[in-house]
Amino acid sequence: MKFKNILLMVLALSAFSCEDFIGGDLNADPNKPLTVPITGLTGQIQISLADVYGSSFSRWNSLFTQQVEGVARQWSSFNQYQIQAIRFDDSWGDTYENILGELGIVTAIAEENGYNHYLGVAKVIEAYTIMMMSDVWGDIPYTEAGQGAENFNPVFDDQTTIIYPAVLRLLTEALGLFSGPSGAIIPGSEDLYYGGDIDAWTKAANAILARYYLHLGDYQNAKTSAQASFTSRSDNMSYQYGADPASGGWYRFNNGREGDIEFHPSMDALMTSLNDTDRLGVIDNIFTINGATPHPYFIAAFRQDLISYREIQFIIAEAEFNLNGNTATAQTAYLNGINASFVEFGFDSEGDEYEDYVAQGNVSASALSMDKIMTQKYIAMFVQPEVWSDWRRTGIPSLTPVSGSSIPTNWDYAQQTYLFNSNAPETVLAPASLMRGVDWLSNW
Predict the structure, then answer these.
(1) Is the overall model pTM greater than 0.90, yes or no?
(2) 398 in any annotated domain
(3) Mean pLDDT, 10 residues at a time, over the chain (444 residues)?
(4) CA-to-CA distance for 62 and 299, rounded, in angstroms?
(5) Containing structural domain, residue 172
(6) ∠ CA(213), CA(325), CA(391), 5° rounding?
(7) For residues 120 and 103, what is the distance between their CA atoms, to the nearest angstrom?
């Protein structure tokens, strides 16, 4: 990938200056370094990824899967799938500029200096990011992206032949780097996800691989990778936000746009039908900032998961069920996923709330089915963007389009791309622009 060209261009531009003639840089402030060290870039990249995933990716994907609904101002139109391409400009720009562009610099520094564990971390984040992008947009610029003035019209690389193979390559390379020498500089406290714990990054790489294989319908490899990944909630790849204004994405949105989005009545009805009263009680007033009853969701100090133990347990349950039927392995993973969700909602892992819920016949693991697994995963991963991928794969739970005959299966490309990249696909207006799907859906 050529995002590191950004760094090379900066170095080239700085090669000829006054210091070549005078013997020093008269304009340099010794207290303000001209280059940012690799340790200073990592945390900002991680915050940017958590921000975009927990904000726009969460809002749009949760809207499409009817976990939330737009009820006021422009969000009432978005709820009807009338979403203009410009609405995706910020997400597009943030991922390319604040994540992939910065990762190119980290990668270049790490490769040049043999900082192998830093390089591995960068590859994991890059793999995660391009898969996250391709899962909503499909084909995206990648091999020619980030070249600046060298190429203002990068091609859109095919998801099947370019993007997904790159995800696998990056994660495989990262695992190899993690198992070898670390290099002179190693990740530490500036790593806001894992504090430099390479064993944790190894688990995260395997967790992302499990999601990757699941999208492709490869249950065996999905199960194998999942079982090599997270073993508890503490393993989650996540970012912990702090107090306002350094707060989580949903809190910031609700603080400025309270009343625009609410809990969706279809998910409310589903949880009510399952007597899921305890978790429903947490969700009540979840979008209200002023005067809200305290709850573990959407507070300022929100912990944003990028991939979680509960997701991994449901991947194991789905994969095992489809490979070998209703085995003890599938049942245990299914129950682990539900239990982890109850903990996420603020309940004790051995509390009556969880025990009473899973004792019900329409929830218990004794007569496990795909419908049970995917329905419970849908609830357990409330407002996690991956829910939309699950629904597009399986159609569970059954959802009725709010408008027209189809629920969106992709995001539209950013308006800036249509305007300035001659290789962009032909413009199509919403809602048709949201119905072309992504390549891996053909596996389902």
Answers:
(1) yes
(2) no
(3) 44 33 41 65 97 98 97 97 98 97 96 98 98 98 92 97 98 98 97 98 99 98 98 98 90 88 96 96 77 67 96 98 98 98 94 97 97 98 98 98 97 97 96 98 96
(4) 18
(5) 1-27+35-239+405-444
(6) 45
(7) 11
